[in-house]
Automatic annotation (TrEMBL):
Main subcellular localisation: cytoplasm
Organism: Leucothrix arctica
Segments forming domain ACT: 294-371
One GO MF term attached to the UniProt entry: prephenate dehydratase activity
Cross-referenced PANTHER family: PREPHENATE DEHYDRATASE P PROTEIN (PTHR21022), PREPHENATE DEHYDRATASE-RELATED (PTHR21022:SF19)
Domain Prephenate dehydratase per the UniProt entry, residue ranges: 107-282
Keywords: Amino-acid biosynthesis, Aromatic amino acid biosynthesis, Cytoplasm, Isomerase, Lyase, Multifunctional enzyme, Phenylalanine biosynthesis
Catalytic function, reaction form: chorismate = prephenate; prephenate + H(+) = 3-phenylpyruvate + CO2 + H2O
Pfam family, one: ACT
Name this protein carries in UniProt: Bifunctional chorismate mutase/prephenate dehydratase
C-alpha cells in the first residue's frame, strides 16, 4: 500500500482552520487592547469628575453636549472604514455615556410610554448610561425638567412627512427652558399584531402622526380595516397585545416591548421618513463649531411685518432653515414665529441681527443655541 499522506482537501481544511485561528488570536489581542484603553478613558472621566468637584463651584456641568459633538465630528472625520460613520458614532456615544455615568448619573424625561420612538431618540443621543423616565404628555416632560426632577427632557418637534408637533412649540411660549440639543431619527413604521398574519384583524391602532405617515400604504393594503388613533405607538402596541383582532403601527422597540410579531416592516410612505427631537434643559450651551439657534419672535400683525423680521437675517448672511407660526394666546390674530438659524448666538453676525430684530419685534427670545444633530 502506498503512503498517500494528507489529501488536498484535508490540507485545504487545515489551512482554513489555521487562518481562522490566527485571525481569532488577533481579534482577542485587539479586544484586550480596546478593554485596556476603555479602562484608561474611564479613569480619565473619573479624574475629570474629581477635578470639577474639587473646584467647589456651584451647578457643575458634567454633561457637555458641545464637547461631545466635537468629539464625534472629529472621529467621523478620522474614520476610514470599513465601519460606517453612523456605527462609529453609535459606538462612541455608548463609550461617552458610560464614562459620563462615572461622573454623574443623568436623568432624562421623555414622551412615553416605553417603546416609543422618543425613547429610541433618548438612547441615540445620550446612550444607555443615562436614567430615563417616560411621561404621557409633552407638558409633563417640560414640568419635570422645570422642577429639576429630570436633568433634561426629549420631545418631538417635527416629522418630515407629518409636519410640526404644535404641542411642543406652544409649550415653549410659557416655559423658560432652553433647547440644549437636537436628534434626527429615521422612522421605520411597522405593522404588528399577536398573530403571524393579519387574519381576523378588524382595527389598526396607532398615533395619528404614524397613521398619516402610512396613509397611502394602508389605503392600498387595508382600505376596509378601521384605523384608530391613540396617544402613542407604544399604547397602540399595548392595545394590540391584548386583542387578537387588533394590530398596531410602531417601531421595533414597541414590538419587542409587547411581544408582537411584525407582519409588514417599513410601511411608511416615504423612504426618508425622519423625525426631529429636541433636548430641553436649563443651561445655555457653548458653541461647538457647527450649531443651530432657535428663536421665538412676536410681532404685530401689520403689512410687511414678516419681511422686516427676515431682512436682518439676509443682511448679516444668516441662513434660516425653518420658520413656523403659531397663534399667540389671548390675542386676536396675533402670532408667534419660531425660527431656526444656522450659527451660534455668540457669533458676531448673529449678535448684530438679534439687535436689529429686538428693535423691530415686540418680543425676541433665544430658545437655545446647540450643536446640530450628528446622524
Amino acid at each position: 500500500m502506498s503512503d498517500q499522506g494528507d489529501t488536498p482537501s484535508a490540507n485545504a481544511g487545515k489551512t482554513v482552520i489555521e487562518k481562522l485561528g490566527g485571525i481569532r488570536d488577533r481579534i482577542d489581542a485587539i479586544d484586550n487592547k480596546i478593554l485596556s484603553l476603555l479602562s484608561d478613558r474611564a479613569a480619565c472621566a473619573e479624574e475629570v469628575g474629581e477635578i470639577k468637584r474639587g473646584a467647589g463651584e456651584e451647578n457643575i456641568k458634567f454633561y457637555r453636549p458641545e464637547r461631545e459633538a466635537q468629539i464625534l465630528r472629529r472621529l467621523k472625520g478620522l474614520n476610514k472604514g470599513p465601519l460606517a460613520d453612523e456605527r462609529i458614532t453609535a459606538i462612541f456615544r455608548e463609550v461617552i455615556s458610560s464614562c459620563l455615568a462615572l461622573e454623574q448619573q443623568i436623568n432624562v424625561a421623555y414622551l412615553g410610554p416605553k417603546g416609543t420612538f422618543t425613547e429610541t431618540a433618548v438612547h441615540k443621543h445620550f446612550g444607555q448610561g443615562v436614567g430615563s423616565s417616560p411621561f404621557n404628555q409633552i407638558t409633563d416632560v417640560f414640568r419635570e425638567v422645570e422642577a429639576g426632577t429630570a436633568d433634561y427632557g426629549v420631545v418631538p418637534i417635527e416629522n418630515s412627512t407629518g409636519g410640526i408637533v404644535s404641542h411642543t412649540l406652544d409649550r415653549f411660549v410659557s416655559s423658560s427652558l432652553k433647547i440644549c440639543g437636537e436628534i434626527h431619527l429615521m422612522i421605520h413604521q411597522n405593522l404588528m399584531c399577536k398573530n403571524q398574519d393579519m387574519s381576523g384583524v378588524t382595527r389598526i391602532y396607532s398615533h395619528e402622526q404614524s397613521l398619516m405617515q402610512c396613509r397611502d400604504w394602508l389605503a392600498r393594503h387595508y382600505p376596509d380595516v378601521v384605523k384608530v388613533p391613540v396617544a402613542s405607538n407604544a399604547e397602540a402596541a399595548r392595545l394590540a397585545s391584548e386583542d387578537p383582532h387588533s394590530a398596531a403601527i410602531g417601531g421595533e422597540n414597541a414590538a419587542k416591548q409587547y411581544a408582537l410579531n411584525i407582519v409588514s416592516p417599513h410601511i411608511q410612505d416615504s423612504a426618508n421618513n425622519m423625525t426631529r427631537f429636541l433636548v430641553i434643559g436649563k443651561e445655555e450651551i457653548p458653541a461647538s463649531g457647527n450649531d443651530r439657534t432657535s428663536l421665538l419672535i412676536s410681532t404685530k400683525n401689520r403689512a410687511g411685518a414678516l419681511y422686516k423680521l427676515l431682512e436682518p437675517l439676509e443682511r448679516h448672511h444668516l441662513d434660516m432653515t425653518n420658520i413656523e407660526s403659531r397663534p399667540a394666546p389671548d390675542t386676536h390674530w396675533g402670532y408667534f414665529f419660531f425660527m431656526d438659524i444656522d450659527g451660534h448666538v455668540s457669533d458676531a453676525d448673529m449678535q448684530l441681527a438679534l439687535a436689529e430684530l429686538e428693535g423691530e419685534a415686540e418680543l425676541v427670545r433665544v430658545l437655545g443655541s446647540y450643536a446640530k444633530a450628528i446622524l
